[in-house]
Model the fold of this input.
Amino acid sequence: MLNVAVDLVKSKKISSYEAEKQFGIPRRTILNKCNDHHQKAVGHPTLLSAEEEILIADTVKVSAEFGSPLTLLDLRIVVYHHLENNGKSHIFHGKMPGERWARNFLRRHKMTQRITQNIKKSRASKSVAELNEYFKHLEVEIANVPPSNLLNYDETNLSDDPGCNKAIFKKGIKHPERVVNSSKSSVSIMFAGTADGKCLAPYVVYKAEHLWSRWCLDGPSGCRYNRTKSGWFDMVCFDDWFEQIILPWATGLDGPKVIIGDNLSSHISVSTVKLCREHNIRFVFLPRNATHLTQPLDLSLFGPMKKHWRTILLQYKLANQNAATINKCHFPQLLKQLIDKLQISNENNLKSGFKAAGIFPFNASKVTQNIPEETGQMRQKFDHTLLEYLKASRESKPMLGGRNQKLKITPGKSVSGEDAIISQKPTETKGKPTEKVCEINNLDNKNECMENINENEIQLSFTPPSPKP
Done:
């Protein structure tokens, strides 16, 4: 409102007196702004200098880029040690900055707190050089291939857990609960989509020994159903999916076709390779441990799909409260509801997925820009205090384990840690004496064994080697 009043007064549309009455702002304040007086930021000045705040903000951002994001408490500890090392601990009276200061710091530097997604170290260790090698081969394979002939496939699962949702309760309640049955079971599904936004029919695999008729009715158009003992795709299922879903798609297209997917051993076979040669189909495997960066379906389709699925599943659970798990007879109908919801945004999502993966339009930098590379400039941005804190708090300290031995105990009896120590057998070496071992067949002789060991009454036996003939 102050800026609006100042603009009106500067343009001489209203006087300072009229602005004071209209906006309720003191006339002297408006005139000071018009004359460029008091141009400092509104509010209390920051306790740290602008250079110090920028340095800390840069180091926090770089730390997050390299997979070691700081929590609000970590930020306060880093600032405390930084001030202590520079002789400025008096700023916060020798204590850590408060949580309120930390939140205001994030707001000033346009940072926010987000729930992290944990990834394996093997995924985080992917380098730009590895990805550039993949894109170098990909560029050759997809050259002059239209987007309708570029296809990505991936296997996912729809779980029986609708997840957690926010609901309304009275203030102060300690245990907000919703009565909904859930389980750890899931159904595997293979999805495939092209770079021009077309999604092929899904392929469902149940965890079962046999397939029943009601499990396959009222589902999405063109959907195929199968079963395995584990509930996941094996080589037989993949071959059947390729013949029933991929070949009809490929035979209706001219020119070479490129199929992009992960390199699981169950996703390739001799018969599939033979069919690819006959129908001018090329397989391109994604680099290992990099599907979170290079898989179009992971980047665009599966996120919205899982969100819609949790909504559909919750409605199903509330309508069928006596069902412990999803009835497989109902699953095709639920899957059809999911596909119908996805059809509205499928085309745009698939196109954006191929674009984010750098496949179509081809642009390797779409992926490589997400890989942090250490440079001299970045190294200078790291404050020494932050490096010391990360080294002390996140240095790898693996737990060491000793040699494991099988205990000989009476069935039904328990043992303590002291019993396990007594029962450990020393390493036997040929031609060397061996110690007598106390077996815990009868726990009553534990004290006797301990006394013998404490008094160094250890019986030694020596077996001389047999003479050579």
User: Anything to note?
Assistant: Residues 258 and 282 are 5 Å apart (CA to CA).
